Amino acid sequence: MKIPPSLARLVEELARLPGVGHKTAQRLAFSILRDDAGRAADLARAISEVKEKVRFCSRCFSYAEAELCEVCAGSDRDSSVLCVVEQPGDIYVIERSGVFRGRYHVLMGAISPLDGIGPEQLKIAQLVRRLEEQPVEELILATNPSMAGEATALHLGRVLEGKVGRITRLARGMPVGANLEYTDDVTLSQAFTGRQKL
Amino acid sequence: MVITELSALDFRNYKELLVQFSSRVNLIVGNNGQGKTNLAEAIYFLNHLDSFRTHRLADLVRIGQQNAFLQCTVLNNDIPHKARVEITPQGRRAWLDEEAIRRQSAYAASFYALLFNPDSLYNYRHYPGERRHFYDRFLAFYDGEYLEHLRTFRTIHAQKNAALKSGAETALPEWNYLFVQKACDIIKRRSEIIDRINELLDGIYRRLTGREGRLALQYHSSLSGEQARDEAILRKNAEREKRAGHALYGPHRDDYELNLGDRKGESYLSQGEYRISILAMKMALNDLMRQTKGFHPLVILDDLYSELDENIRKNLNEYLEEIPNQVFITTTEAPETIGLRQARIMEVGAGAIQIRSS
Questions:
Q1: A90 and A42, same structural domain?
Q2: Cα–Cα distance between A67 and A9 in angstroms, integer?
Q3: Contact between B166 and A113 using a beta-carbon 8 Å cutoff
Q4: Is B267 exposed, middle or buried (CB count within 10 Å of its CB: 0-12, 13-18, 19+)?
Q5: Partners of B28 in beta bridges
Q6: Which pLDDT does position B245 carry in this prediction?
Q7: ipTM, 2 decimals?
Q8: Is 90 exceeded by the pLDDT of residue A130?
Q9: What range defines the domain where residue A19 resides?
């Protein structure tokens, strides 16, 4: 027996999401179907609301429901330090650790000619302008340790040279809780290069 | 390392095969087309998970069949391991001690076979890409970090080429910086390994030929391996690279050249000279692995004796009986005329193997 067309459509829509294969999509769809009508309507409303209400913060390009995001609007943040990340999602990862109290700037990607992304496609001009208007003491480059992230950090270092007091890059090395025995050679050699005084 | 036993099912012309090897020299004899090289290929495949004759896995499966199986017992430092490979229309899968291998590099770290084979010799002689591939594979085994450096370099190289091709030049200085940084990691390692090979190479050549040859490997790179100097080279040639639309300088263009005395380059040696020079180079790699890692790779010598004169054969046999490696030699010649003293002689005929003496 074939799946009813409306159910098939839901499965197909769900399967478009990252990390969701056809089988998972089917399980989710059946689960939605089994729920009360109210729950399904809540889910549908949550989905359309997120698209209506969430936009990009006009200053840092993080997710926001107002002109400015929570971090940019907050008065409790240290405005002398700015942390540059590739994606809005990266902010939540750093926030979860609670280690950083400064503000952010989202580039909306990393330089990758293979994907047709150059500095012009990123929020770099906006960053430069922002730093001119509100100078900071330190700029932390928290782009990914991938080659695209590395090139992006180098590029920022070049275009911002002399414009910011201190530009730093996140350290690379041994993950906490890791065992020396199972660490790959390249990570280990980076950890050695970046070793610190006890 | 030593392969004590090998079994095959529907591999090339072998329907079913179970064979025990000597831990020293194995002489595989038989007429053309009987399956000598197929056996060498099976041994090689169990080591490197690819063939030296074909890139199409289907070629390895016996005609009319879908799947082929290979299995062997390997002694590494006297500890027995079981390696198993399955070739199916979907691809190949490998197990080491009944554990599935997910990454080929994990498997490649424990096995190495030095191969001498006429077709590979031809390719090595005529194609720089083959030469780069050969030393890259050796370095990947020899130096745990090398493969990762090479992979990273390839990513940067692809990004740089994309930037050059599309004319997206704003971030080109950054790609060039990263390009040179990784290029230096690679060039230093390549140049070091060639120096170490050269320390051993001429001695082995003299021993095998009895001649004063002055055999040396020369490494050529379009970059120097020094960050500042190489960045300057790229800056100077930025316009040329932009016009070409791809990277003109870097380790992707490196080459290796065999020099015998004043004769420099692959094309100045006779066929026989070239064969013995390449054999000497492989034996130098063998010495290097023994000295630095205490590792004895398998030595597979396919169609060894053709085009080698009487004197060289004698020296070569002595040498092969002296080194501690497990050696596999294939030849069409009669075993009595070869002059190996302690080899296990195995005769291949129509996909079956008979042991004639141990």
A1: no
A2: 35
A3: yes
A4: exposed
A5: B330, B346
A6: 95
A7: 0.78
A8: yes
A9: 5-53
